[in-house]
Amino acid sequence: MNFRIIICLLFPIAAFSQSQPLTIDQAVQLAVAQNKGLQSTAAAVAFYKEMARTSAEIPKTQLSMQYGQNNSYANDNNFNVSQIIPFPTLFAAKKQLNEAQTEKAVWQKAATQNDLIFQVKQVYVQLLYLREQRTLLRSQDSLFTSFSRSAALRYKTGESRLIEKTAAEVRLQEVRNLLRQNEADEQIFLARLQALLGSTTPVSIADASIPAAAVNVLEDSMAVADNPQLHFAKQDIDIAGKQKKVISAGILPDLTVGYFNQSLIGTPVNASGAPLASSGNRFQGVQVGLALPLWLGPMKARVKAEEKQQQAAGLFYDNSVIQLKSQYRQAVQEFVKLKNSLDYYSATALPNADQLQQQTVKSFVLGDIGYAEYFLNLERVMSVRQGYLQTRHDIKQSELYIVYLSGHQR
Q1: Three-state SS string across the chain, please?
Q2: 11: pLDDT confidence band, cut at 50, 70 and 90?
Q3: Which residues pair with 62 in a beta bridge?
Q4: In the predicted structure, residue 5 carries a pLDDT above the cut 70
Q5: Which of 137, 275, 328, 368 has its CA 20 to 30 A from that of 237?
């Protein structure tokens, strides 16, 4: 098997050489694989997953030694080990909070990816529009070049006035200026696409025309239910609730356990009072205690603050749902409006424009119409074709926006 084929099979993303034109699907795949902003959210997910392992964290173990005249004129020594352990319910509360934060990071990554794919497709379709617009402008350039030559010849032979020749040249230069603007706009959007793909080298597109638009319209509450931005906002409600549990668990007493081992030189080693302890005799024991909060006011205030935070998160989520539903309804209505306009162009305006152009050119060549009527008719034809192209672009962008709101980007 050819070595290059093996590499492509093992590394399909790398197979999309950025020096080669990219289809819209390949552009999306490269963006998902390479975009630094999306990689940042993936790193945030990994961070919170690691943080989940800290749920059972306890304070540092305390080791201490005491040396000196503790019991008599002789120097005694005392070794002490102690550990503070939070109330067990705090561990479970912290674990639940870390899990909720991890879930939020996951939804943030999903929302970022949804937005990234939308932007890539938007820019790609804009580039397709510019390509088709360039084709349209070149056809106008050809028509007005012919018109300009004809007007110049008619003026030279005395068949027309200078105004006809001047008008033809002005219109031709205007079309060529639009072509230069079109080429500059293409470079702008190619640079934007390169940034979205996270590419260090220039990119180009493979497709030639704007694809047809079609959407599956759903009832708005169902349509936006999977939008990751909603899940991201909803997770703040859960996090505030979990944070409240952590603070509440923190009010409970901490447990203290310890062990000591010491010398008591000169102390009787038994009940009879003899013999007396020397430095080789050791006395040991354990310590158990509770750490109680003496001032509960600030802690209770923090619990109430988290309740307010949870309420704020809930209201923000409810507002997000309302806004997304409204945006979806508006987007659907915009799509329907553009669909009706596109049907008009396809069924009526474009056929009439083609016929008008043929009749106008033929009549002008035969001398049946003057330059003013010829010029006006061509402008009408070009306006219809530009309107048709603009509508195809707008309806495709409308489709992309509806899919973005639904969160079903691929």
Answers
A1: CCHHHHHHHHCCCCCCCCCCCECHHHHHHHHHHHCHHHHHHHHHHHHHHHHHHHCCCCCCCEEEEEEECCCCCCCEEEEEEEEEECCCHHHHHHHHHHHHHHHHHHHHHHHHHHHHHHHHHHHHHHHHHHHHHHHHHHHHHHHHHHHHHHHHHHHHCCCCCHHHHHHHHHHHHHHHHHHHHHHHHHHHHHHHHHHHHCCCCCCCECCCCCCCCCCCCCCHHHHCCCCHHHHHHHHHHHHHHHHHHHHHHHHCCEEEEEEEEECCCCCECCCCCCCECCCCCCEEEEEEEEECCCCCHHHHHHHHHHHHHHHHHHHHHHHHHHHHHHHHHHHHHHHHHHHHHHHHHHHHHHHHHHHHHHHHHHHHHHCCCCHHHHHHHHHHHHHHHHHHHHHHHHHHHHHHHHHHHHCCCC
A2: very low
A3: 82
A4: no
A5: 328
pTM, two decimal places: 0.84
Mind listing the pLDDT tens digit for each residue in 338-356?
A: 999 999 999 999 999 999 9
Place of tokens 């306009």: 341
Between the CA of residue 170 and those of 163, 370, 375, what are the distances in Å? 10, 17, 12
What the chain holds in terms of domains, given with CATH numbers, is 20-54+90-253+296-406 (1.20.1600.10), 60-85+254-291 (no CATH)
> How far is CA 241 from its chain centroid?
26
